[in-house]
Design goal:
The protein has 609 residues and is of the alpha+beta class. It contains 22 helices and 14 strands. A six-stranded mixed beta sheet has the order 1-5-6-4-3-2, with helices on both faces. A two-stranded antiparallel sheet has the order 7-10.
Length: 609
């Protein structure tokens, strides 16, 4: 019996009985090629070859370091595909030589003469040797915390074609890599590849051979345009031709628009020779190209066809309406009365002046409208920001209104002073308003003043101390030398400002009625009280929060005397121009016309207030 058993065992070994050498069981699958001798390579080189063939750029030699890095990344791609299929990071050690032979043969097909191992110094074990004895998916996952795995799955389980998701995925993998692995000899083993090979195989749902995954995780720039060569050739022609057609079309559209604009300008009356001089004046100041030209229909719609319920003011030059533009903004629209050829020049002048100045204490111009309609005739309209709180005139002299406190009146005086200082010294050439009065000072919700109505404004050429012009303005506000001799300068505005300041102090109009003696100028009335030693009687009765008596009394004296026929400073008598020209030399003659105005004077006046 023992003899028969020994004979049977020997025959079995000689004949290769299947139960002994047909296969070797692993812990998760049967791998037929894991034998003691050389084994065939289990890598799927077909997937890598397909990516290379379909790459429009193909493989071309760049330099040795670059090519060696490409080779290492290609091996990682093959290992990731192998990991996805088998659960192993590396093929059996006895398959390393076969894998290298197949890989180098593939490379030689596209880069002839490039031998990977000798050129790059890679060892044969690079393909099959593990790091830290990690060979399976389960072993790798056991070293990573659940929170880190969750982060990797959240960042890498998406298309990685775009830069943002790719960068996010790479960042999460790099943090894992730096926590668990150290840089070994990259020519012998490949420790740093574990997170990237794992993520491409099991985290990214598109798999390791997806173009986005290949480009992001293995830095292999393949463009899968193979099989689409014909379509690409068509695109190569279509794109430049489309660009040329687009450029030509854009040039054509610009030329058509230019032609239409030129014809439209030739028809506009505003560009007639009499008004071109005014436009050049605006260019001297700096101009304002942001002014909008509104259509008459738009203006009518905004004002409900100039309805009486939208009328908010009347003046010598026109009526003022409130309006609502199509964008929802509220505006004030001044419609000129003298709508004739002569009115065109006046209108163009006002547009020129307002458009050239931008200051917190000056009303800003939104735009204008010019139109000639047979029923209405000439239409000249300016569009400004709507100041909702009315004018200083309304608050000082309106019936039933609450009296303004002294701090508010003081702030109004300061704002008007700053606005006038800007007109006189903030623009070149300087601008003389010529119509500074209470009704032309608008107040916003915080009682910040806005100087409006530049209809009578004039430029002051450089080097001239004054202009000789026809007298214009409002009775009670016009400076004596201007009314008598027609000599206009910045001092004329300062005189008018002094009258406004006296109105703020007294609560009385520039022209008042005194008993049965008829009308009198506010300046003369105030000066008469000052001469009698009753300066405080000028102060408005019941003014809230009145200042110190000595201060208000001095202001009243200064306004009544100094502004009765002068301006802000009198250089001849060494006046200091303090408190808006309030403190003056006792030798000052109120009827003298020898005075001057300067930027320093304005600044000191503003500082004192």
């Amino acid at each position: 019996m023992p003899l028969l058993f020994s004979l049977f065992l020997g025959l079995s070994l000689a004949l290769g009985f299947p139960s002994f050498n047909s296969c070797i069981a692993t812990d998760h699958e049967i791998i037929p090629h894991r034998k003691l001798g050389n084994a065939p390579c289990p890598f799927n080189f077909g997937a890598l070859r397909k990516l290379i063939v379909e790459n429009t750029k193909r493989l071309t030699f760049v330099d040795v370091p670059t090519e060696c890095m490409y080779m290492l990344q290609a091996i990682r791609l093959l290992r990731s595909d192998y990991l996805q299929r088998t659960g192993y990071f590396f093929p059996p050690a006895n398959a390393s030589e076969a894998c290298w032979d197949s890989f180098e043969s593939l490379v030689d097909d596209f880069i002839p003469g490039f031998s990977v191992r000798p050129t790059c110094g890679y060892k044969t074990s690079l393909i099959s040797e593990s790091c830290m004895n990690i060979t399976t998916r389960a072993q790798f996952e056991s070293l990573i915390s659940e929170s880190e795995l969750k982060e990797i799955r959240g960042k890498c389980n998406q298309s990685l074609e775009n830069d943002s998701p790719c960068a996010s995925c790479i960042h999460s993998l790099s943090s894992v890599n730096s926590s668990f692995y150290r840089a070994n000899d990259g020519k012998v083993s490949d420790c740093a590849s574990y997170p990237y090979v794992y993520a491409a195989a099991f985290v990214n749902q598109l798999g390791p051979t997806d173009l986005g995954t290949v480009t992001c995780l293995f830095t292999l720039a393949f463009n899968s345009d193979g099989g689409k060569t014909k379509k690409k050739r068509i695109l190569d022609w279509v794109v430049p031709v489309s660009c040329v057609i687009g450029i030509f079309g854009a040039v054509l559209v610009v030329w058509i628009c230019w032609r239409r604009q030129k014809k439209w300008r030739e028809k506009r009356e505003i560009f007639n020779p009499t008004e071109r001089g005014l436009v050049s004046g605006m260019e001297m100041i700096g101009g304002n190209n942001s002014v909008i030209k509104f259509a008459l229909d738009e203006v009518k719609k905004a004002t409900k066809n100039f309805s009486r319920e939208n009328l908010i003011g009347c003046g010598g030059y026109g009526n003022v309406y409130k309006g609502l533009l199509s964008d929802g903004s509220e505006v004030a629209l001044k419609r000129f009365k003298n709508c004739s050829a002569a009115g065109d020049e006046s209108f163009a002048h006002e547009v020129e002046i307002i458009a050239s100045v931008k200051h917190v204490n000056l009303v800003a111009l939104r735009g204008y409208c010019t139109a000639t309609v047979p029923p209405e005739g000439h239409q000249r309209i300016i569009v400004c920001d709507l100041i909702r709180n009315g004018s200083l005139y309304d608050h000082l002299f309106g019936s039933g209104v609450k009296k303004l406190s002294w701090p508010i009146r003081q702030n109004i005086a300061l704002g008007v002073a700053r606005g006038l200082a800007y007109l006189h010294y903030g623009v070149q050439p300087s601008i003389i308003h010529r119509d500074v009065k209470a009704s032309n000072i608008l107040l916003d919700e915080t009682f910040e003043p806005k100087l409006a109505d530049f209809g009578l404004a004039k430029f002051t050429p450089d080097g001239l101390s004054h202009l000789s012009t026809q007298v214009a303005g409002t009775l009670g506000y016009v400076a004596p030398e201007y009314a008598l001799y027609g000599q206009l300068s910045e001092r004329s505005d300062v005189y008018s400002f002094g009258v406004v300041l006296l109105e703020l102090l007294s609560g009385k109009k520039a022209v008042i009625s005194i008993n049965s003696d008829g009308a009198s100028l506010l300046i003369d009335w105030g000066w008469s009280l000052v001469k009698e030693g009753r300066a405080l009687d000028v102060i408005d009765d019941g003014m809230p929060e009145l200042g110190l008596p000595e201060v208000t009394g001095e202001i009243c004296s200064g306004c009544s005397s100094f502004f009765s026929s002068t301006s802000t400073c009198k250089a001849n008598y060494g006046s200091d121009c303090e408190d808006i020209g309030i403190r003056f030399s006792s030798s000052f003659n109120p009827r003298s016309s020898s005075y001057t105005s300067s930027r320093d004077c304005w600044q000191r006046a503003i500082d004192k207030l």
